[in-house]
Amino acid sequence: MRTCPTRPRRSHPWPGSGRCANDLREADGQWAGGSFFPSDFAFDDDRPQPWTATTWALKDLREWGLAASALEGTAEKLESARWEYENLPYWGGEVDVCINSWTLSNGL
Length: 108
Fold this sequence. Notes:
This protein is mainly alpha-helical. The chain has helices at about 15-25, 55-65, 75, 95-105.
């Protein structure tokens, strides 16, 4: 799995972190192969959830102020992405209202 260089946590990302995170986007428009969870996440083990999948990446990039133009074409690529729960379309909505609010905010 590709990752961005790690730095100590700060209130703002270090220069280039948005670009690095955006560069981790896969050809299908997703990050880490999943909508809310990475594709290799095992729900039955004790590891905490990694916050690297598409919803979290888009949320972080939006909050870090990445220009929307840097994500051009991502929404169209995500047309084929599905939620892990009930296999619903990514832009069609998930069953959880909190997830839907993030998705809506990320799509603006």
